[in-house]
Structure formats: structure tokens, C-alpha cells
Amino acid sequence: MFVTERTKKAMQDFGLTDYETRIYLTLLQYEEMAASEISKTANVPFSRVYEILSDLEKKGWIESNDSRPKNYRARPPLIALENTKSSIERVQKMNENQILGELQPLFENKESFERPEIWIVRGENNIIERAKDTISQSRKEVLLALPFVTKNISENVSPLLIYLKSRGIKVTILASDASLKILKKFNQIAEIRVRDKMFGGGIISDSKEVFLLLGGDSGSSEPIAICSSHVSLAKFAKEYFEWLFNTSKRI
Question: Which residue among 64, 80, 96 closes a domain?
């Protein structure tokens, strides 16, 4: 059987070792084989073949019967990939819970130094990452004022908003009419209103932190944003947002 190196590399990127890849490709050619036959055909040391077969079976790529000697056969690639994806997602979720459960409280409770009240962020990529950080730290409510919504912004923000919604955090979006088509995908996760025109945009998190998007420096097209945890500024920004929101159109 001829299989390209690109496909073999893709299998290994999915977590299969070189020996596991060889064995699976060998079993694809035959209905079923015993371990000794697999060892010879796939050029895998017999001293290791049972260990590798066991690992492949746990990963869901092959299956065995109860005959003597035991025979093995390949599972369909579609099923094998789904098994691997499900396993990866379970491990990622466990790791995510472990990391967030232990490290997020440390981040939120750090009080060993005095934090500045205002940050300046420059550059589109830095602004997007800082905006995502502001949104992800919301615990009760997040308000978003979006003068425009591009595909890039939508792809970066929507997973975070879905995550917040799943945790019962209120999401409110105010945007311009020009973004109406893209905004419709957020209907199930946020309360949305639109205006004919908007001047500037930003994020308000839990009435405690505000993120304001500005234009570039004089003579520069590089975007600039201001982040602040100043309570008075966040309160003022929220009041202004609510006034705009209450006077805007529902979608």
C-alpha cells in the first residue's frame, strides 16, 4: 500500500508514533492479523509489538478479538480520528480546568504590588489580545461597543462570548448598522442593539475595567487603545454606554 509521507506525518501529528503508524497502515491492507505477523510485516520489534498494539487499541485505532492467538484489525479511519479527537478534547478540558482552577485565583487575588490605573496598548494584534483578556476576566457582565465588526473580530470574540454565556455572564453589544449581518450570529448569546453611526468603541467589564479604542497617533495609522481599572472612569463609560444603548434600535 502506498501512503504519502504527508499522510504519515498527519497521523503522527494526531498522536501516533512511527511504530503505531506502521502497524495501522499494515492492518489497513489485511482483514486481520496476529501479533507475530504484524511484527514481521510492519517491521516492528516483536519485543514491543504487544505494547504498541495495546496503545493503539486504547487510542481507538484498532480492535482485537478473543481468538488464540489474538487477532487484530484496523478500525475505519473516520472512527479512529473521531476517537482521537474525543480523547484530545477530554484531556484538554481536564487540563483547562486544572490550570484555571489553580492559576486564575492566583491572578485575581494578587495584591503584592500596586497596579497602575491606565495602560496604553498599540498595534492591532496587541489590541485584540488585550481586548480578549478583558472580556475573559468578566465575572458578571460585559458591555461591548463595536463601531464595526469584521470577520477577524467575530472569529476572535465569538468563542469568548459563548464561554461567558455558558457561565451565566450577561453580554450586551452595541454596534453600527453596517455590522448587522455579522451581528446576527450573536443573537443567542447577547442582547444587541444598533445605531446609524458610532464614534469610537470599547469594552466595559463588571463596571470595574474599561477598554477604549482610539485612533492612531498624529501622522500614524497604528491603532491605539486605553485600558483602565479606574472605578470612576469605568462608571462614566458604563453610564454613557447605557444611554447610547437605550436610545438605539433592537435587531
Answer: 80
pTM for the complete prediction?
0.51
201-205 vs 141-146, strand pairing mode = antiparallel
> Do residues 224 and 216 lie in contact, with contact meaning Cβ atoms separated by under 8 Å?
yes
What's the grid cell of residue 50? 504487544
Is 129 in the same domain as 58? no
- What CATH number should be reported for the domain holding residue 206? 3.30.870.10
Domain that holds residue 39: 5-80
Q: What is the pLDDT of residue 218?
A: 44
Confidence band for 220, pLDDT divided at 50, 70 and 90: low
SS3 sequence, 165-230? HHCCCEEEEEEEHHHHHHHHHHCCCCEEEEECCCCCEEEEECCCEEEEEECCCCCCCCCEEEEECC
**In sequence order, what DSSP letters do the residues of 34-63 get, joined into one string?**
EHHHHHHHHT--HHHHHHHHHHHHHTTSEE
Confidence of residue 223 (pLDDT cuts 50, 70, 90): confident
Helix axis angle, 5-13 to 18-29, nearest 10°: 120
Structural domain total, the chain: 2
Please give the radius of gyration of the chain, using alpha carbons only, rounded to the nearest integer: 27
Confidence of residue 2 (pLDDT cuts 50, 70, 90): confident
Looking at the fold, whether 60 and 163 belong to one and the same domain comes out as: no
